[in-house]
Every structure is written in structure tokens, then in C-alpha cells.
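Q: what does this look like with pyridoxal-5'-phosphate bound?
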Amino acid sequence: MKNFNPADNIQDLQYFGEFGGVNPSISDSSTYTFLSAKTMFDTFEGNMEGCYLYSRHSSPSNLYLDKALAAMEGTESANVSASGMGAITPTLLQLCGAGDHVVSSRTIYGGTYAFLKNFAPRLGIKTTFVDIIKLEIVEAAITAETKVLYCETVSNPLLEVADIEGLAKLAKRHNLTLVVDNTFSPLSVSPAKLGADIVIHSLTKYINGSSDTVGGVTCASQEFIDSLKNVNSGASMLLGPTMDSMRSASVLKNLRTLHIRMKQHSFNAMYLAERFEKDGLITVYPGLESHPSHKLYKAMINAEYGFGGMMTLDVGTLAKANALMELMQAKNLGYLAVSLGFYKTLFSAPGTSTSSEIPLEEQIEMGLTDGLIRFSIGLDNDIERTYQMMKECMKELDIM
Ligand code: PLP
């Protein structure tokens, strides 16, 4: 049997434009005409495959991207959205109502954490945050009200690795839906193949890859995607986080080079992580044997795409971290910016930026230290040259 390869699955899709264009035509309309009123009614009811009614519901451009992302994750279907949060929040709200409970990893993107901790309780949805590495702790947090098990494949910002197969078994045993945010590891990890029920991405990051848009996707069974888009009860349809057709067309074009980019991001990150660790810096990268989940991650990944482009260095204090980031930016080694998956290296101190929603005492408990810098390693052509230049910056600041 042919092995599952996400990039081959994307490549095997053949789309043409309306006039034979090599890119599919962009659907530049919010509404669609019908030759018969009966067909319009049937389309509204969701019974007319291939007919479009209104672009908040679905559009040809969004369906092309949906299809490509479903192929990438090996799910039946997908639904793109205007942002990663626009995929995460409707998905959770579709799965949970008042009285329901979520068990979530405590090391997740700050926005998701804030939604579950501060916003979802307003709707009667409670969350227990757990150390996702410890399956016995995850299981102990499950109650009769639990509906969802939520994690990120590689967590933001600590780069912990979730045992998706182990979590999927737990989810099955307790009749829960396992939702995995795979934003940090597209192509490298295929969570649905490891047993996840729903896979989410912020397309803003690696998948689009050019830091020029925000976007998101939920990849799942046809039944779940239909429920999200249901005109009477679908969270995506009713909350309205629809991606614009122009954007979905441009994200689809960028998706075509994702496999090449991921290999280079992984190569460069591995190169730097190995060297900085040898230099004595506290380096966290799942490709390093010193990473607590290295063996697990190695067994989980589609090897040719590597261990990803995310790495952290702990330089001791926030003051040193800030000085180093400012100096590296001044030397044009990257940008002091949040987000990830860009051609250029991006760096930020998560405690004061992307994870600042997490209270200080909880940051300390989860090991999110003051001097931690999160790097999204770019596509630099000569990574040895970059390494030497970064080292110079560190020497100048007495970090090494
Ligand atoms: N998931 C992860 C892992 C993220 O890092 C982010 C954003 O940083 C999001 C989700 C949210 O995505 P977006 O900013 O596209 O809404």
C-alpha cells in the first residue's frame, strides 16, 4: 500500500481555471444566480452538490483550498476561515455547549488559552488545563461532562510534543473528540493519521508562509464540516469567520511550495539548534536528542519534512533576551516580531508577547522562563553564515 504523503496528496489534485488557466479562477462574487427557484431552495437546504448560494456559506475558491488542505491532512473535508482563531473557536463551540467540559493542554497558543479560560466559561463551557505529556494526568481530568480533548502537536511556545496516538486512544475510550492544532508542524505530522478527529491550522503561519495574511482551517469528517456550515446551527456559518475568496486563492498558490519550504526551515533550525546546544546554550528543538520527546516525535513525523522550524533559546534574563533580539534585528538576521513560518527568521520573547495572556505564576509553573526567545527559523540560503553572525551578536552581549 502506498504510504501516506501529504505533499503528494496536494500535488495529485488537478485544478484548472475557467478559461484553461493554470490556476483556478477566483470566485469574485458574494452571491450566485439560479436558473430555477427550486434549485435555489435545495441549495439552501444543503442538498445541491456543486451549487453555490452565498459566499459566507461556501465559494468555489474556498472549496479548492478546503480540498487541498483536506488532502494534506488526510481528512474527508475541510473548512477554511478568516483566521486560525476563526477555525478554533467555531470548532470548539460546535462541539461544546453549556455544561460541557474541555480537557486542554496548558501549553497552547495564548489566544486559544484565553478563549478557553476567559471566554468559553461565559457560555457555560469549562476547561481543565493539564500537562499534556502525562497521559495519566490527562485521563484523570476527564469527567462525565468532558466532550473535547484539545492540544497542539508541538506546543507554543515550549515545543512540547503531544503523543497524538496515546491521546487518540484515550479520546476513543472516553468517547471524546480529539482536536489537534497542527500549526507548528504542517506536513511533518499528520495528526488525523495518528487518530485525531479534527485537525486545525492557523494558515497565517507556515502554510501561507509569506506573512501577508491571516487565515485558518478546520480539517475533519464531512459530517463535522457540514455541521459547522449548517445554515441553522453551524458555528462557522452563524459566527461568520469566512475567508475571502481572493485570499483563499493566494493561500492555495503558496501551499504549492510548502514542502520545499518546510524542508529548508527544518534543515536550518536543526543546523542552528545543534550548534547552539554544543556552544552551551539552553536550546530546545524537537530534533535534538536532548529534547524530552525526541524519540516520540521522531516516530510521529513524516521524516522527509524534518523536525520543523521552531526553536527556543534561553539566554537567562528578559533584559538579555531583549538586547539580543534588538541586535539581531539591527544586523538583519531576522525580525523582532510575533508569528512564524516566514522566509525571514522571526523572534520574540513569548512571556511578554504571544503567551502574555497566561498569568505569570502559570508561566513559571509550565517552565516559560523570562529569558526564553522563540525563534521561527527562516529560509536562509547559507545557514553557517547566519550561525556565525548570530554568534557574534551573542558574544557582543556576553551571552556566550
Ligand atoms: N494556533 C497557533 C499554534 C498559533 O500560534 C496561532 C497564532 O499565533 C493561532 C493558532 C491563531 O491563529 P491566527 O492568528 O491566524 O488567528
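Residues 83-85, 109, 111, 152, 156, 181, 183-184, 202, 204, 214, 216, 354 surround pyridoxal-5'-phosphate (CB under 6 Å). The longest helix spans residues 258-278.
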